[in-house]
Amino acid sequence: MIAEFHLRGWMRIPGVRIVALVDPNRAAAENYRDRFVPAARLYADIDALLASEPIDFVDIVTPPSRHQEHCLRAKAAHLHVICQKPLCPELAMAQELVRAFAGSEKLFCVHENHIYRPWFQQVRTLHRLGTLGSLRRVSLEQHDPQGPPQVFSRESRRGVLLEYGVHLVDMIRTLLGVPTRVSARLGHIHPAVRGESLAEVTFDYPETTATIDIAWRNDGLARGRALFLGDRGQALYEGTMIRGGASRFRVRTGQPPDVDETRETVADYVESFHLFQFDFANAIRNGTPGPQPAAENLQTLAMVFAAYAAAERQEAVDFSTFGGGPT
After folding, report:
1. How far apart are CA 227 and CA 292, in angstroms?
2. Distance from first CA to last CA of the chain, Å, rounded?
3. Which of 126, 189, 214, 219 would be 131's cystine partner, CB 3.0–4.6 Å?
4. Whether the predicted pLDDT of 324 surpasses 70
5. CA–CA separation, 18 vs 58, rounded Å?
6. Is 275 a residue whose pLDDT tops 60?
7. How many CB atoms sit inside 10 A of residue 252's CB?
8. Which CATH number describes the domain made up of 3-111?
9. Where are the domains of the chain?
10. How is residue 291 annotated by DSSP?
């Protein structure tokens, strides 16, 4: 579903050349090759690719159940690795995978692009500079009226929280670090989705409450919103956080200049891929740490799985005892 946006991002980066595509579906591979990279060679599996191509990195955009296998094959070939989120379908599996890369000189990064949305980059800057003051409330909402198009997302035991909510959890962790407590309620409102299709999660911090409200629905209207409320100012994004339509982003701090701008969600979506990939390419060139290292992304996954545990127990989970800790 998103391979197109990966390819569009790489094509904009000077010095990066996509030389091969891997897909067991030959027709799908040919379609992407013909549309984006006509010179790319095609392979049916990753082993055939690794045996034939002198490449620098792989960008793994496969179902989560295959991530561990594909990442380890790339590691054995001494390549830099980007792996699509979520890193693995279970936290213990992701922890095992990160341990396997310990000591590697190659980059091992997770593709988490929501924090690269241009409007969220503005929020990060405002927070870092203290312009909003101490954040007291962070609230992120995204309701998708169509549900997931991928078969694996509909059939997986884990649903919208792991497959989409991980994006919003990563935004919270990026701003606030890890929480003290996590509570959650999960529900089923999409008949074609095996896992949860509704999730409400609360992350408690000493000075801040952060929440996510997400759903895959089979009707209704798309809804998206992000509120960042500080004791000196606030930022508000209104519009879907996926693709489609326009959005509005406002900042009020009591000091000029305030922000009030209309944004195109598709443009922001595309740009977030490019910005992440640009940082990754520069890290390879410069020998510097990569964006979204998998070891750091484990904290985001731990927050997600703490929410699953809280929903199952029907009580708040102490994050430090769950397996979390300082980032």
Report:
1. 23
2. 31
3. 126
4. no
5. 9
6. yes
7. 14
8. 3.40.50.720
9. 3-111, 115-263+294-322
10. S
- The gap from C-alpha 155 to its chain's centroid, in whole angstroms, comes to 20
- Cα distances (Å, whole numbers) of residue 302 to 12, 109, 155, 323: 33, 16, 22, 7
Kindly tell me the burial class for residue 191, based on how many C-beta atoms sit within 10 Å of its own C-beta (0-12, 13-18, 19 or more): exposed
Closest CA to 127 of 46, 207, 210, 229: 229
| Residue at token pair 């509704």 | 198
Per-residue model confidence (pLDDT) at position 326: 39
Rounded Cα distance between 325 and 26, Å, is 44
Provide the whole-model pTM: 0.94
The DSSP letter of residue 254 is S
Q: How far apart are the C-alpha atoms of 254 and 90, rounded to whole Å?
A: 45
The mean pLDDT of the chain is: 93
| pLDDT top residue among 285 and 320 | 285
CA–CA separation, 220 vs 145, rounded Å?
5
CATH number of the domain located at residue range(s) 115-263+294-322 in this protein:
3.30.360.10
Amino acid, single-letter form, for residue 101:
F
pLDDT at 116 over 90: yes
When pLDDT is cut at 50, 70 and 90, the band that residue 245 belongs to is confident
pLDDT attached to residue 246: 86
Of the candidates 89, 209, 193, 83, the one whose C-alpha atom is nearest the C-alpha of residue 144 is: 193
